Each structure stands twice: as structure tokens, then as C-alpha cells.
UniProtKB/TrEMBL annotation:
Organism: Stygiolobus caldivivus
Lineage: Archaea, Thermoproteota, Thermoprotei, Sulfolobales, Sulfolobaceae
Pfam family, one: Fe_dep_repr_C
Name used for this protein in its record: DtxR family iron (Metal) dependent repressor
Residues of the Iron dependent repressor metal binding and dimerisation domain: 63-130
GO MF terms, alphabetically ordered: DNA-binding transcription factor activity; protein dimerization activity; transition metal ion binding
PANTHER family referenced in this protein's UniProt entry, alphabetically: IRON (METAL) DEPENDENT REPRESSOR, DTXR FAMILY, IRON-DEPENDENT TRANSCRIPTIONAL REGULATOR
Length: 134
């Protein structure tokens, strides 16, 4: 399922809190994304309906489907970044440019680029490239 950059931004924020052992709070997500709590609530309800997050009184948790979407985005970003460095961009330039379209590149293309690059384990900044499965 294709997700927009905005939807993926929400998932990244929620996953960050979940990875720290905390359920995300609506106010934290809104503040992190610099939006109103009402807008955050609406989008989180939308993401819950799609099965990417679960909300309850205690907070917000990313689902396995949401984690998969985030891992696919991170992989896409880091593979594109690696390719851009390979053709002469600095790591910081590559990161900046990758962010502009990483969410829109189909998974099949990312997988082929990853293979073409020799299946690197890390991006130019030294961050791990997630192993994803279709």
C-alpha cells in the first residue's frame, strides 16, 4: 500500500517513541510534526483505519504493518542515498535529495538498486540499511 510522505512522517515519529519503550502521545506527535492536535488526531485515526497504528487511552503504538512501511521507507532512503554518493554527491547532499522522493520509488526498484550497488549493509552515513521482505 502506497503511503504519502505525510503519513510516513507520522509513522516515523510514533516508531521513534515506541522504540524507546513508550507509547506515543497525541500531543507529542503533534508537537514533533508542528501541527495542531486536532490535525494529528484526524491523521492518526486515518492511519488506524488503514491498520498502521493502534490507539488506546495509554497512547499510540505502531503495528507490524506500520513498522514494515517505515522499514521500506528507511531502506529506500538509504539505498537512494548510496546511489547518489556513488555518482558523486556528498553524503549530506545525497540525504537531502533522497528525502525529496524516497517515499515515491517502488519497492521493486529499490530492491534492484540495492542489488546493483552490491547489497551494502550501511548507507554513506554509516546507518544500517534494513532488510525488508515483500
Amino acid at each position: 500500500m502506497n503511503l504519502s510522505r505525510r503519513e510516513l512522517s507520522y509513522l516515523l515519529v510514533i516508531k521513534k517513541y515506541n522504540d524507546q519503550g513508550q507509547l506515543a502521545k497525541l500531543s507529542w506527535v503533534a508537537k514533533q510534526l508542528n501541527i495542531s492536535p486536532a490535525s494529528a488526531y484526524e491523521e492518526l485515526s486515518h492511519l488506524e483505519g488503514k491498520g498502521f497504528v493502534k490507539k488506546n487511552r495509554s497512547g499510540i503504538e505502531i503495528t507490524d504493518e506500520g513498522k514494515k512501511a517505515v522499514d521500506n521507507l528507511i531502506k529506500a532512503h538509504r539505498v537512494i542515498e548510496s546511489l547518489l554518493v556513488e555518482i558523486g554527491f556528498s553524503p549530506d547532499e545525497a540525504c537531502k535529495y533522497s528525502t525529496q522522493f524516497d517515499f515515491a520509488v517502488p519497492e521493486e526498484i529499490i530492491d534492484r538498486l540495492h542489488k546493483y550497488l552490491g547489497e551494502p549493509k550501511r548507507c554513506p552515513h554509516g546507518e544500517e540499511i534494513p532488510i525488508t521482505t515483500s
